[in-house]
Amino acid sequence: MSGTEFQWSALVELRRIIGFDSMCWTSVDPATWLPSWSISDNPVVGRHQRSLHRLWPTARDLTALAERGFTAMSASAGGDLARDRYWAEITGPAGLGDSLSLALTADGACWGMLHLYRERSDPHFTPEDAFAVGQILPVLARRLRRAALEPADGPSSDDEPGTIVIDRDHRLVASTPSADRWLARLPQPVPGGDPLPGFLYALVERVTPGDLGRATPDRRSPRLRIRATDGTWLLLRATSLSRSPTLGHGAVAVTIEPARRADLQHLIMRAHQLSDREREVAALVVNGLTNPDIAEALFISRYTVADHLKAIYGKVGVSSRGALALALSGTAGNPAP
Length: 337
What we know:
The protein is an alpha+beta fold. The protein contains 15 helices and ten strands. A hairpin with a 6-residue loop joins strand 1 and strand 2.
């Protein structure tokens, strides 16, 4: 069963457990907390991906949500949905009422978000509703995590980086030919909706201060790892542009390029459920260090390195350093259950 087929079948079970009218299911890069794709069975929500992702929570807010597991819009708005900006701008005018947001976490990492919506005339979600749905969330999270391990072909030699320019109003104003080719291979917007995939707006919002104040505190270029429709791993980076007579202030350049092995290691290792120390050891193995070198670098014994390496091999399903490096590159590997 494909990932999308699994999601739709899971929603049938969710509707049996708890009543809701529509949903939006979003995958998340566990390192940056940025959305990478979403599906929705509500045409209004689907057509307003720009607003949905511009209002995407900060990493701090998502961390708090992941710790709680869920939040109901009615609860966070003190019972008055009109106080919530997203409801006032998008879902309220469409006739929707309360929403329940749930974090899909597995082994301490967030792999996605699930938003359930009820009609305006329906009762608000309760903590009991969230608890009932929460029983199935770990299964959904593990399935999202498994998707990161599905093997993909490496980029071809002609897959050059591309750049698009988005102005302060989030309009696409320029693109290179390579960027156009990459955009054609990204998950496409809903027909009749916004012109760019929704996750691009969330990425741009992280670098543009704007009225929501979502610029990253350390001002590093925000980045997002995502799979193209053909399975190729891509890295997207957003950078603020200097003020120009044509674009003014607030324009952002987004670079789209094939992800390198180093760009994917953290994601793949989290998907294989490696511990913090195991990720450190695995990264040094991939960089070509021997066991004695790793022991010296991490101030541990060679026997401890060997124990970690044995555990890593078992979790990843390999038996050699070369196979480990290949599996952690995102181009090979067997999905974990």
